[in-house]
Amino acid sequence: MSTPPTFETVACDAAKAAGRLIREHFLEKKPVSVEWKGLHDFVTAVDHEAEAAVLGYLKERFPEHAVMAEEGSPDEEAVDYRWIVDPLDGTTNYIHGFPEYAVSIAAVVDKRPRVAVVAHVPRREQFHAIEGGGAWRGSTRLTVSHRDHPGDCLIGTGFPFKHPELLATYLRQFTTVLRATSGVRRAGSAALDLTHVANGHFDGFWELALAPWDLAAGTLLVREAGGLVTNLEGSEDVIAHGPLVAGTPAIHAWLLNSLR
């Protein structure tokens, strides 16, 4: 099924609208109301407002499409197109003023992301991709790095902070990767971590417990930049709750083997 090019325009405009709202709240420097969703898991009024802005934008233009969003109830009906939205990926960073948070929007068909937008809110940068059309930062085409030796590589990761039962496994993996590479980084936004893989800053990335809204858009960006994205078993069917491994073809293969 082909994806109309207007989908990318709508997704980009929705991400820009949410990004403006988030920046306005930040510049006002007003106290942010914070709620606990679970262990080390927060949501703010800004998350809810940004999600409402994105969903309103999408539903107005594509009322027949389903939506899965982090802070709302997903539409369960079977439809051709499903939008997967994280209105503020990196909420903890936002709460603390750490400038690494984003709006993530993807259109998914048959469990494959076909359109993707990730907006780095503090930097006012927007990354976008259409399946088969490449990955882009503005008008600059992205490509994964050409490094293929682990010792030369910088790897991104995410801690299983909501799932302490995974910590022992993760620490063994972390030790293996850290010893073999030039460094490991954890910035707190999986959507942006995947843009770093797509633009060659990171050579690989892994995390053990992600949700569809964390990874849907970033997955397409990496693939369209020439990289690979799978789960720990090597399956490309990653739009689910679970682990993710991404990287250049060579480093993705090395990561999979090392993490196992």
Mean pLDDT: 90
Please compute the radius of gyration using only Cα atoms: 17 Å
Secondary-structure element sequence?
A: HEEHEEHEEEEEEHEHEHEEH
CATH superfamily of the largest domain: Fructose-1,6-Bisphosphatase, subunit A, domain 1
How far apart lie the N and C ends?
A: 35 Å
Unreliable segments of 5+ consecutive residues = none
The assembly state of the depicted protein chains is single chain
The CATH architecture of the largest domain is: 2-Layer Sandwich
Under CATH at level 1, the class of the largest domain stands as Alpha Beta
Give the helix/strand class.
Answer: alpha+beta
Q: Could you say how many structural domains there are in total?
A: 2
Q: What does this protein look like?
A:
The protein is of the alpha+beta class and 260 residues long. It has two domains: 136 residues, Fructose-1,6-Bisphosphatase, subunit A, domain 1 (Fructose-1,6-Bisphosphatase, Chain A, domain 1, 2-Layer Sandwich); 110 residues, 3-Layer(aba) Sandwich (D-Maltodextrin-Binding Protein, domain 2). It is built from seven helices and 14 strands. The protein has a seven-stranded mixed beta sheet with strand order 3-4-5-6-7-8-9, sandwiched between helices. It has a five-stranded mixed beta sheet with strand order 11-10-12-14-13, with helices on both faces. Strand 6 and strand 7 form a beta hairpin. Helix 1 packs antiparallel against helix 2 and helix 5 runs parallel beside helix 6. It is globular and about 50 Å long. The mean pLDDT is 90.
